[in-house]
Structure formats: C-alpha cells, structure tokens
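Subject: Sanity check before I submit

Could someone independently write out the structure tokens for this chain? I want to compare against mine line by line before I put it in a report. The sequence has 417 residues.
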Amino acid sequence: MRHTTAHIAWRNLGRNKRRTLLALGAIALGQLTLVFVNCMMAGSYGQMLRTVTGPLIGHVQIHQRDWREERAMDLTIDHVSQVEAEILALPDVQAVSSRIYAPVLAASGQKTEEPADAEPAVVIGVNVAAEASENGMLYGVEPNELPQGQSVLLGRVLANRLGVEKGRQLAVIGQDIDGFPATNLYTIGGIIDSGLDIVSNRGIVMAIGPARTLFAMPDRAHEIIVHGSDYRQAETLAQQIEQLPGLADAEVLPWRQVVPELARMIEMKSWIDLVFLAIVFIAAAAGIANTAMMSTFERTHEFGMLLALGTAPRRIVAMVIVESVILGLVGVALGSVVGTTLVVVTSHTGINYAALAGSDADAIAYAGLNISYVIHPQFEVRHVILGVMAVTITSVLASTWPALLGARLEPVEAMRS
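---
Independent answer below. Compare away.
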C-alpha cells in the first residue's frame, strides 16, 4: 500500500510541471543558500579562530599586571623556566612559549658613504623550538632561516622600509631593562611574511637567549603564550594556571578576554546558521503549501471519486503528504548537490572579498592580527542534514491542512465539482 501511495504521489507531481518546477526551484535555492553560505561562514570563522588562537594570542596569555597597557620593559614575569615547567605539568597543556618585546631603532649595518636611516622596530625574543611548531609564530619558516645566535628574522614591511635583504647586517639600538644602552649587530637570516601585524610591520625576531643577553633579562619574559588541547576550554585552563604559585601576581587571560570583539564575532556563527536555516523553512513552506493547496483544489473530483469507491480518508491524507515530502526532498537534494559542488570548488580556489569589492588588499589588520580577505569555504555535512530535516518537517506541516481538507470532502458534492 505504501508503494502504491508513493507511486501515485510521484505521478501527481507531473500533472502541473510548471508549478512543480517553481516549487522545486524555491526549495533548491533555499538549500543551496543554506549549504554554501554557512560553509563559507564556517571557513571564514574557522580561519578567524585559527588566527586569533594561533601564534599571537594562543588559548591563554600570561603577563605581569599592567604590561598590556604600559608595555614597560621592567614589567616582567620572573623565574620563567620554573613557571614554564609548572604550566607544562598541567594535563591539558600542549605548548608553552615565552616572549620578550623590546622597542628599538633598527638600521642597515652595512658601511655606506651616507648614514643609514633608522626605523622604529620591536625586537621579539622567542623560544625558537616552540615557535617553529604548529600554532607558533615561526611555523612554516625554513629550518635554515630560523633565528639563532646573531641571526635574526625581519618582517617584510620593515625590511622594505630599511632597504635590506637576507644576508645583510642589521644594527639594533635600544635600552636594556635598567635603562642602559643596548646595541648590537645581527645578520638577517631571512625575511618573514606573517599574519601578525607586529611581526610584518616592525618585527625583528631573535632567539630568546640572545634577546635576554641584549636587554639584561636573565630568566625573564614579558609574555607567556599557552596552547591547550581545546580552545573551548580556555577559561578552565586559565583558572588552573592562575593557581600556580609562581604566577600569584600575574595576569592570566583566556583568549576571549584578550580579544572580546573577535570572540563575539566568532560566536555569532551559530545565529547565522539559524538565519539561513529559517530561509530554507520559509522557501519550503511557501513552495509546498502552495503546491499542496492548489493540487487539492484541482483534484476535488478525483478525491470524491476515490472516497465514493471506499478509499479511507487517511489514504487521501497520506497521498497529499507523501507528495509534498517527495517534492521537498527532491528540491533539497538538488540544492545540496549544487551547493556542495560550489563549496568543493571554492574551497580550493578561495573567495577574495576584497577583489569582489574592487580592492587589491590581501588582509585587514585588527587587534594586531592580519585577517585574510581570502575565504576558503569549509564543507560541513551537518548543513545538508539540517536542510533535509527542515524541509521534511516543513513538508509535513505545510501539507497537513490541504490533506485534511481533501480527506473531509463529501464524495457526492466533490464528484459534482
């Protein structure tokens, strides 16, 4: 019986091909929008999340109190080796990296007839091994270019301003933690393109050992970046770190508190998913309700004859509802196929927001981060599943009233119409 009902329902969709195609188009367009836009948002927010919780901010940041506002050289975390060991002993910690930040003047160290122009810069002393791993500041840098000893990395923008290149000498002039002059010559081991604004525009990245020597900061650091096993548990991890005895006077911040605006933007994704899911509901409801209602009115005579021949009213209800569900599922299948195809293609090519707006910019700088304009959609099968569920439920709800109207017809009156 179910097979017969489904067969009749499928046949009835072909009675008015134009109406059926319009309904299919509306449902398919709604599902395509849900799949493609939400997958694009998933790629965008996923990229933003990786940038935010990556090398600059991490999952948890540790500083001396007031350092983030003042950036004073003497606001340091002391006994860093011991503190790092205590943090690494926590069960959910995957990586710890200490950093030194020191404002300096930088100039080409090559001897020329005219004195070289100096540019403001920031020396960033880092744990090279930790920063060369995934989520580190130096991830992706060639091993032979990693800073060590008197070799440093220079941000691309700073290198262009100074007019220097790999292999040249770099003069660094600054002050140590006690206010005494701190100067030295270094070799530029490489030029780095970074997603971190401070590195690209002003960064001189050197190993933390030579940085501590230059600025008289033995076993000290301005910042400790911690990566845990799950960015969603950053608050819990921060609470555990705060309890460590070596950090009684330190400021321990999960990433959401460091960049609250970006955190709110990332968390908006769930609301965007709901908005486009609502679009699918509306498209399906409009298309299916119209089709089911018109089909019921057009088939009044047919329903009357079936009822007169002894067909149970529930069979009439089943025919109309199954017809609507088939219509909805075919539409959502078409939208899913087209939407998934677009996602797969653009996940490789990327979508450049700036190019669409007529700009040639690659990224936007915000909160010290360079957030790329090029978005690579990320396919998530749950969007397809949500669309199928939404359309199925909508199909049943939208066709129930027309189905009941058909089942309640008086056979004699219906056959006369």
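---
OP: Matches mine. For the report I'm noting this point. Residues 125 and 209 are 8 Å apart (CA to CA).
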